[in-house]
Design goal:
Blueprint: E1 2-6, H1 11-24, H2 33-41, E2 49-55, E3 58-72, E4 75-87, H3 96-110, E5 115-120, H4 122-132, E6 135-139, E7 141-146, E8 160-162, H5 166-172, E9 181-185, E10 188-194, E11 200-207, H6 211-218, E12 229-235, E13 245-248, E14 259-264, E15 276-279
Parallel strand pairs: 4-5, 8-15, 11-12
Antiparallel strand pairs: 1-2, 2-3, 3-4, 3-8, 5-14, 6-14, 7-12, 7-13, 9-10, 10-11, 12-15
Length: about 290
């Protein structure tokens, strides 16, 4: 019989969850209890909310959302972002995970959160849309090329963007499993991550203006790794790519196209993808 419990954020609970996540996702070797403590407990916006499914004493599915702060149509609001969705292989196909997700998003709404957001692959997107009331905003753009990312220069408002305080940025840039590389650029700091593929690094984003000294203060010294090709993932229609050395990476060339999905609790509207700003800093793939 499948039963549901709230996630436990104690050291013992994190160790159990981490072991299950590694069993469900063999490539996620970095998901140990230290990583989950950073991701679930240390977030300065607030601890993670989550539910887990058990078959007897065996943990078989894990559903978690992470609190965040965003600007949504001019208002600063709190929402939640889905991450670490996992079910053991021999329990797939039973709808266990999305049963947890439905209950968890109802809890988040009742707790006063304004929205849910996630970055999902095509298969997961359908479940979130059918079961949890999400809408597809747009597949993330993937651009690969050389040199600096063009600055956002086009006019136009932004209806949705994640907000980063100095404290939240310091936390985001200090995962226990990874060290980022940092480059200064005209008073800003560009954040780069290894892609896992030789010759390519990922441009997570650029922290502008007054936040740059604070990021530089917590940043690790630049590593010796670096590569000529750079990959940018995100949405920002204010960027004019036409004069850059970056080209769109077609869907067939991507291991798994990533979709930005969104739901505003208690509202039937969705986001205009032309008015969304989302970067690699804003989600947890790197």
């Amino acid at each position: 019989m499948i039963t549901t419990r709230a996630i436990e954020l104690s050291p013992e609970g994190l160790r159990r969850s981490a072991a299950m996540l590694r069993a469900a996702m063999p490539r996620a070797a970095h998901m140990d209890d230290d990583f989950l403590a950073w991701q679930y407990v240390a977030n300065p916006v607030g601890p993670a909310l989550g539910l887990e499914a058990f078959d007897g004493d065996r943990l078989v599915s894990h559903c978690v959302v992470q609190p965040l702060i965003a600007r949504l149509r001019g208002r600063e609001v709190r929402g939640v972002m889905s991450l670490n969705a996992a079910t053991l292989p021999d329990y797939l196909g039973r709808g266990i995970y999305f049963g947890l997700a439905e209950e968890l998003y109802a809890t988040a709404r009742a707790s006063g959160y304004a929205f849910g957001v996630a970055v999902t692959n095509d298969k997961s997107t359908q479940g979130f849309v059918r079961r949890c009331g999400f809408s597809l905003v747009r597949p993330l753009e993937a651009r690969i090329g050389l040199g600096p990312i063009p600055r956002a220069r086009r006019e136009g408002g932004v209806d949705f963007e994640k907000l980063w305080s100095d404290k939240a940025l310091a936390w985001r840039l200090s995962p226990p499993h990874l060290r980022y590389r940092f480059e200064r650029r005209d008073g800003s700091v560009r954040v780069l991550a290894p892609s896992g593929r030789a010759g390519i690094e990922v441009v997570l984003g650029e922290v502008p203006g007054a936040n740059a000294p604070n990021v530089a203060a917590v940043a690790a010294p630049p590593r010796s790794w670096g590569s000529p090709l750079r990959l940018w993932l995100g949405l920002d229609q204010r960027i004019d790519w036409r004069r850059s050395l970056y080209r769109n990476l077609p869907l067939f060339a991507r291991p798994s196209p990533l979709n930005l999905i969104f739901t505003e609790f208690g509202a039937s509207t969705t986001l205009d993808p032309q008015r969304v700003r989302w970067s690699g800093l804003d989600f947890d793939d790197f």
